[in-house]
Write a structure and sequence with these properties.
alpha/beta; six-stranded mixed β-sheet; 3 helices; about 30% helix
């Protein structure tokens, strides 16, 4: 099974219980927020939260995924939940 390099998640995603099930299968390294107001939401998913500019968040997530072998979650302007793979492919997940 191919593991995503990172996930993109829309801010305010409502189905936290479904996210917990997804991330129980593939644990996440951390959450990356592009707006400090998203920090409380991110802390529900993982205690490690990094703030980044929106321009650099995906790049940072890719670098962390490559380095540590676990995907990060970028919370910001996304459409639901998407898995992002090393080849750039994006897969919308029904979480």
């Amino acid at each position: 099974m191919e593991v995503p390099v990172h996930y993109s998640l829309s801010r305010g995603f409502k189905a936290i219980d479904k996210l917990e099930r997804v991330f129980a299968i593939t644990p996440i390294l951390c959450c990356i927020v592009t707006d400090p107001h998203d920090t409380p939401f991110a802390l529900k998913l993982n205690p490690a939260v990094i703030q980044s500019s929106a321009d650099n968040a995906d790049l940072l997530a890719d670098m962390l995924g490559d380095r540590y072998g676990l995907p990060a979650v970028v919370i910001g302007e996304a459409d639901g939940l998407e898995a992002v793979y090393a080849d750039g492919r994006r897969e919308k997940l029904d979480a």
